[in-house]
Specification:
The complex is a heterodimer of chains A (255) and B (359).
Chain A: E1 4-13, E2 16-26, E3 31-35, H1 42-49, E4 57-62, E5 65-66, H2 72-78, E6 80-82, H3 95-101, H4 111-116, H5 119-138, H6 154-166, E7 172-176, H7 184-201, E8 204-208, H8 212-218, E9 221-226, E10 229-234, H9 236-240, H10 243-250
Parallel strand pairs in A: 3-8, 3-9, 6-7, 7-8
Antiparallel strand pairs in A: 1-2, 1-4, 4-5, 9-10
Helix pairs in contact in A: 3-6
Chain B: H1 5-23, H2 28-53, H3 61-80, H4 96-114, H5 116-119, H6 128-146, E1 157-158, H7 160-170, H8 175-196, H9 198-208, H10 210-215, H11 220-246, E2 248-249, H12 256-269, H13 274-293, H14 296-304, H15 319-333, H16 344-347
Antiparallel strand pairs in B: 1-2
Classes of the chains: A alpha/beta (255), B mainly alpha (359).
């Protein structure tokens, strides 16, 4: 059975149909991409799956259970983590704290444990910190753990955001334009990193990306949407030669 | 070893205060100044959770203080002394010494429940709109109290001095001083533990990027609820202590001016800085006390040239000239306050050598 099963998800904003009958089935450990021209509704699809909006129609099933209508933090607790197109770190607190706060879904203690500093609290805080450091070291970020993200270069901020999403131990990682704003050297590093994460953690990764070299070198399956509607899906080779996709990106030559 | 520094310092301070209050080395006036300082520390540090850490703008802290003040006063008068309102005491004066903390806790719990009035709207609303709701909540509290005739209405409620003297008769110690000290230390301790935990850091996360917080599995509604209830509850504790220091309460005390006073302390200290709030509360208390009798010559002069009638004294109002002016200057030249977002140990890293906290 598919890990994420989205069936005929439709979203209207007023009279505008932002996403129309979107259907996707992502397998465990699959690496897939969602592409399309600007304004096609890609980020809206991510926002719907992660719980920011409740779809007008359709069904979202994750890991065998419906997650439609859950709040974002509940969706995240079920095992879907995501990053944002424009980096959304907490810039005024250390990188380590950024990762620690992402463990709210598995705190394992209550308010009174935190007032009384009970053994359970102390143990959990230590575990959370160890886990955070482990994730940071895995992505080579251990030396910036005590820096503020606002003082870090853009490329590193991206990595911190991916580390924060990974620290949730998701089953599905959704990356919204991970390569946006990176230079070509950084992009190469990112391709390698995402490949490594995919291999080491064995999680499903679903990304929105405009840079075709990222998509083509990583993803086994691609879905293309335009104006909210699906126009093509298939393997990278198939997509590259699909006339509808070329038309959506480059325009129709039969004017 | 370093873990004992702060408790040891506090114990010394406590001993000195007890000795000074007991022997009369500290006169009654300075005792009350120190007690108001404690109350202000509780108010500023608790408001700092909302206005500093969470980045919301609550202008109704005095309202929650009023709830705590009234609930604990009514309880202590009803339980421990004979009064016109409640008649014979329910338990008796001799129990006052032991049960007084419970009365304070009851006031704090009541205030944190009234805090729901603000906490629940905060799930959907933020910024200016939430600020308006906080003002509204404070006015609801104030008007409710003013319109309950049985507890004195707008005239206020009294009888707590009898409770205080009952406690002194049972065991002769400066009880109110003790409880203000304990309450202040307890509040700062509680707030510190809250905001330094991973759970409490969710409050800062909401301030810096609420959408990121929600997507990174922070249950923002729950964190907001807890933050508001802790903050309002401690304001209620401060209110209870305040009422018992004065011996009477009057709804007129808990106006928006009182809330403003607390807000100025938070902004003066630096938003989100716990030690900044403590420092600012101490400075502001001293400043307000100084301004009570300041510029006496101006008063004399205005009377001399007959600009104001002899019966009217201008000395009391300086507070409301200087505090707003201070706020204007602060926002112009140092909007981040004394400490910014930093703590004392960030400003003076050398201090870290001398003390350490658990977790």
């Amino acid at each position: 059975m598919a890990l994420l099963d989205v069936k005929e998800m439709t979203q209207y904003f007023g009279g505008l149909c932002a996403v129309s009958e979107f259907t996707v089935a992502l397998e465990q450990g699959q690496m897939a991409a969602l592409i399309g021209p600007n304004g096609a509704g890609k980020t809206t699809v991510f926002n719907l799956v992660s719980g920011f909006y409740k779809p007008t129609r359709g069904e979202i099933i994750f890991d065998g259970q419906s997650i439609k209508g859950l709040k974002p933090h509940q969706v995240t607790s079920r095992g879907i983590a995501r990053t944002f197109q424009n980096i959304r770190l907490w810039f005024e607190m250390t990188v380590l704290d950024n990762i620690r706060i992402a463990q709210h879904h598995a705190l394992g203690y209550g308010l009174f444990d935190c007032f009384l500093r009970t053994p359970r609290y102390m143990q959990r805080e230590r575990d959370i910190e160890d886990h955070a450091m482990e994730v940071l070291s895995r992505l080579g970020l251990a030396e910036v753990a005590h820096e503020l993200p606002k003082n870090l270069p853009y490329g590193v901020q991206r990595l911190v955001e991916i580390a924060r999403a990974l620290s949730i131990k998701p089953k599905l990682l959704m990356l919204d334009e991970p390569a946006a704003g990176l230079n070509s050297a950084d992009v190469e590093g990112l391709i390698k990193l995402i490949g490594d994460i995919h291999r080491d953690y064995g999680i499903a990764i679903w990304m929105i990306e405009h840079q075709m070299d990222v998509v083509m070198s990583l993803c086994s399956w691609i879905k293309v949407i335009d104006f909210g509607a699906t126009i093509a899906e298939g393997t990278p080779e198939g997509i590259q030669n699909n006339p509808d996709v070329i038309k959506a990106y480059l325009g129709d030559d039969t004017i | 070893m370093q873990r004992l520094t702060v408790p040891a310092l506090l114990a010394c301070l406590f001993a000195v205060l007890l000795w000074a209050a007991g022997t009369g080395a500290l006169n009654v006036y300075w005792q009350s100044v120190l007690m108001f300082m404690g109350v202000n520390i509780i108010l500023a540090t608790s408001l700092n959770i909302i206005n500093g850490n969470m980045g919301e703008f609550s202008c109704g802290h005095a309202g929650f203080m009023a709830v705590g003040a009234y609930v604990s006063s009514l309880l202590s008068v009803a339980l421990f002394t004979k009064s016109q309102v409640f008649g014979e005491p329910l338990i008796g004066p001799s129990a006052a010494v032991w049960l007084f903390p419970l009365v304070l806790i009851a006031g704090a719990l009541a205030a944190s429940l009234v805090g729901l009035l603000v906490a629940i709207p905060s799930f959907k609303t933020r910024g200016d709109y939430l600020a308006i709701i906080t003002i509204a909540a404070a006015y609801i509290v104030k008007s409710t109290i003013e319109n309950i005739g049985a507890i004195g209405g707008a005239r206020g409620f009294m009888g707590m001095s009898a409770v205080m003297s009952a406690m002194n008769e049972t065991i002769n110690l400066p009880w109110i001083m003790i409880w203000v000290f304990v309450g202040t230390v307890f509040s700062v301790w509680l707030i510190r533990r809250f905001i330094y935990s991973t759970f409490g850091k969710g409050v800062d996360a909401i301030c810096q990027d609420e959408i990121a917080a929600e997507i990174m599995s922070v249950n923002t509604d729950r964190v907001k609820l807890v933050a508001f209830m802790v903050s309002c509850g401690l304001a209620g504790l401060a209110g209870g202590l305040f009422a018992h220091i004065l011996g009477y309460v009057n709804p007129g005390t808990f106006t928006i001016l009182k809330s403003t006073e607390i807000m100025v302390m938070v902004y003066l200290g630096g938003m989100g800085s716990l030690s900044g709030s403590v420092l600012a509360a101490i400075l502001m208390t001293l400043l307000i006390e100084y301004l009570r009798d300041a510029f006496g010559f101006l008063n004399t002069f205005l009377h001399y040239i007959s600009v104001i009638p002899d019966s009217y004294e201008v000395t009391q109002v300086w507070k409301w000239v200087v505090i707003p002016l201070l706020l204007v200057l602060l926002m112009q030249f140092r909007p981040e306050g004394i400490m910014g977002r930093r703590e004392l140990a960030d400003v003076f890293p050398g201090l870290r050598k001398f003390y350490k906290f658990k977790g």
